[in-house]
Structure formats: structure tokens, C-alpha cells
Amino acid sequence: MSTPANSASRALRIVRTAAELSTAIVQALEGLAPGNSPAALGLVPTMGALHSGHESLVSTAREQNDVLVVSIFVNELQFNDRADFERYPRTLDADIEILARAGADIVFAPEVSTVYPDGRPLVKLDSGALGEKFEGASRPGHFDGMLAVVAKLLHFCMPPASLGVPVAYRAYFGQKDAQQLVLINRMVADLNYPVEIRSVPIIRSAEGLALSSRNQFLTKEQAKAALVIHRALNLVKGRADRHEPLYLEDAAGLFEMEPLVELDYFELVDPRTLQELAFNCQDTPFTGEGLLLVAAKVGKVRLIDNMSLGY
Amino acid sequence: MSTPANSASRALRIVRTAAELSTAIVQALEGLAPGNSPAALGLVPTMGALHSGHESLVSTAREQNDVLVVSIFVNELQFNDRADFERYPRTLDADIEILARAGADIVFAPEVSTVYPDGRPLVKLDSGALGEKFEGASRPGHFDGMLAVVAKLLHFCMPPASLGVPVAYRAYFGQKDAQQLVLINRMVADLNYPVEIRSVPIIRSAEGLALSSRNQFLTKEQAKAALVIHRALNLVKGRADRHEPLYLEDAAGLFEMEPLVELDYFELVDPRTLQELAFNCQDTPFTGEGLLLVAAKVGKVRLIDNMSLGY
């Protein structure tokens, strides 16, 4: 792609319906300088409540694409807990300000009636065994609901079928939701969606806490205690980098010293299949590729994090 | 769309891989006369073993589109019975001859490794309650497997995302597989696929037997006995047309007089939701819209048929 136009010159368009979105996408693509071939359209799906983690997604997508669409939709289907859905922060005005500054072209903020005009879908996505483990174990139905809306958004925002200048299509997801990313990649492969999924690294606070819209529900004391997650990941990562045996149980041990933090799981898995790696924690140094997954509860707030190991 | 080019002048391209298919679709679209706007691409998904029923689908799609793709793939996932999958007729050479005569532009006949490169999909389509009744009741998993391949084919054959002359995209399915058609329409709506589903009426033999690739497994005597299906549908349809009460049990009664034919179900349903219509068979004339669904076994061969009632 060519160099993106100066973001200051872009006008952010906010659209609510599928028809407005299509028109806005076509106009934005047509407005590109001629010779912009192949053009590229990037989509960043979000549930709003944007923080620096999202800004990193948006800024990466901004750099890599000519036209940038950010969707904001709090998807009830992926909340297994109604109260969690209701208290999920809705900050549309602040989100739009952030996205205008970040140079997005189009914000797609649909109503529920646009996304689910007939109520809950009758034909559903089934994330199968991949969606039942780890986060799926404590959030039944979460990943099926997430896939339901991503499957729709990928179609809503797809550049139009036509004949002329090709348009590359990419969608961006954060690596923080590692299981979500694996499932989306799997869905795109299993349904042959014509889109390229790109992922963006986790953004952390200076102290190491992975950014999440849930962090705002932590007290200062809880936020400090939650740093054990990063310490545990780093402990194992350091051993992997030094080609030492990993001794995952030492990481779990760190959590026992933090009474405010209740560990749910700390696992080493295959980064593509989420299969637990039957890793011998005795005297064998780690080789190959792995992904450390961790989830812990701090008060009522569930936090997840992960780190790649690999050579 | 413009008048299709003379079918005699078309060269049928047979492609096996996704890359070959994309190239063939782009070349066929680019080969259209200029000013052909909007262009239209039609897809007819089949499992081969083409008969006059398919020819009608293909010929309708040929008339309505500039570029016509027919896919041929015997999808193991939709066979709940391995033996049924194995004996399903594979007649690729004869199919290609029929499609060349019918003026198709592209035959997409992928290998299993193109459609399912990683084996069975991990993220699946779930047809839910709609897929469990009627045909789903006797063929567990059938509709999920059917949706899995249709979801892929709709993406494989989608005209490319680009900027220029718009391309309309349609996929064609026969009304004979009524439950399949309802589920595909539902999937397209629930996942917001950018495709228009068009359906084509049932084709029958002169005697009234709905054409099916399974009919070739019937003896002459069985084929004659199977005509009771059409007689039963016509009996009820006639009453509906004359605004009489339907008395569905009379239709079921006809089957009792045919010892070679074992009725599975004969139901009146809502044509969009397949909800059984709580129809009062006493003295109330039928009003509204309905779909009669029937399935019966003749020897080892399961036959389905249907007929619309409505005003």
C-alpha cells in the first residue's frame, strides 16, 4: 500500500447501519489516490471502552491500511454472565475521540437490531473442544458468542465484490485474548473467509499488568497484587530463554504468596491448537514453540494474560 | 445484467484448487464485454451425479448471470452413513459433459485436501433445533456437515474484493431439499454472508416423482410405488387450493395402501421456520402460507419431497 494520507486531514465517519457502512467503505476506497493498488482495508473489531491496548491495535492497523474501520459493539452473546454484560463500560463519546485522534476513517457502531435483527442466531458457530477449555471452562458459551459476532462483522465490513483495483482485507485482534485469536484463526480457516487475520502484541502498564478494560475495576492494592501474573510468566520465560527446565509449578507457587490473587490456570500449550504440552518438568530444557496461558481472579475481576516461548 | 454470450462460444474451465478457481473467476469476469455493469456471478453447488433437476438449477443460473460456476464435491461431512457416502454416484466425466452443454464457465471440482486441508473443521456450523427435526432426526449431523461445506463454498467462489465494476453474487439451491434451503437462508442471514440465495422449483418425472440422484437405486416397481408421495401432496394441495379443510391424515392414509413405501413424516410447516403449523384439521379451511414436507423410505432408498401451499 501507499503511504496513508495525513491523519489530520481525515474526517471520521460514524455509521450505525449496514447500508451506511457499505456506502462509507466504498466512498473511502474510491477516495484513495489513483494508483493506490492494491488498496488495503483494515478492520479492528472492539467492544468499545477503548484503552491503550486498543490504541496499539488501531495504530498498527492505521499504518498498514489505506482505509481503517473500527467497530464498536458490546456483544451480549459472548457474556455468559448478564451482570457482567450490564456493567461492561459503554463510553462511546470517549471512544470516538480516541479513534478520531488515531486516524480511523469509519466507526461502525451498530444497534443490536442491526447485528441481530431476528434475535439470537438460529445457525450458530460452534467452537467445539477448543472453546471449552481454559476461558471456555469458566465462561460457557463465551467463545461461540464471540465467533457469532466476529463471523458477522467480517462480512459487514468486507470490501465489496467488484472488478477493478484489488482490495486486501485484514482484521486485527490483540494477542492478549490468545484463545480468542486461535479460535478466530481457526474459524477463518475452517470457513475459508477471504480475510487475513493479523495480531498485535499485548500492551502492559509500566509495572507489567496487561491492559484490559476490566483493570478499572481493580483497587490500587489489587492492581499491585495482580502483578504476580507478569512475574510468573517472566519466571518461566526466563528459564525458556536460558534453555533451562521450566518447572511450571514454581510459577504456580508465586501465586500462593499473593492472597488477593486466586490462580485459575497456568498452562503451557501449543500456540495453534491450545493442546496442553505434555512437558516434562524434570531436567529437560524446553525446546520448540509454546504459549503460556494464565488466568486469575482478583476480587471479582477475572484477568488473563499470556506469553510466547519459542525458538 | 446483459445478455449472456452465446454458450457455444464459451470454453468450460475445470479447476481443482482455490488458487486456480480465483484466477478463473477473475479472468471470466474480466473477459466480460465492457459496460456489463453490474456484472453477476452465479454459483451452483452440487455433489455431482447431475440429473435433470440439476440441469434446471444450472440453466436458471446460466440465464441470470454473466459468469457461472458449478462446484462438484461429494461432502463426506454431510453423510451420517459411511456406506451411503461410499456408494454415492461419482460421475465426473458425465457431469462435465452436461455442464459444458449447459454453458457453465467454470467447474470447481476440488480434492478433499483443498476443502478440508486440516481434516474435519474444528470450528463448526451448528444448525441447532432447525437441523434436528425432519431430515435431521433420521440423519444426525447431516445439516451441520452440509452447512460446513456451503459456508466454505460461498467463500471459495465469492467474487474478489475490489474497487470498480460491482459484481452481484448469487448461489442457487433446489427447492426439493426444503429444509436445506431454509437452513442455508438462515446461515446467510445469521452470518451476514454477502450473497443472495436463489431457489429453483422441484423438477419431477412425467409421472410426478421428484428427481433425485437416489432414484437410480429404485427398481421399476419401487419407482411406481413411490408415486404415492406426489399423489399425497397433490391431494392436500388440491384441498388448499379449493379452500377446504386439509385433513392431513387422508394423505397419510394413502401411504398405508402402498406396502413398498414406508412413510416417515408428512407435515405442514411454516416455510421460513419449519415450525409445525398447529393446523386444525376439523372443518377449518386452510389459510396463510405453508409448506408440506414428506419423507418416505422405499426399500433402502430414502426419498423426500415437498409442496408449497399459500395464497
Automatic annotation (TrEMBL), chains A, B:
It is an enzyme of class 6 (ligase). Its EC number is 6.3.2.1. Pfam families: Pantoate_ligase. ATP binds at residues 47-54, 174-177, 203, 211-214. InterPro entries: Pantoate_ligase, Pantoate_ligase_C, Rossmann-like_a/b/a_fold. It comes from the Bacteria. HAMAP family: PanC. This is Pantothenate synthetase. It comes from Paeniglutamicibacter psychrophenolicus.
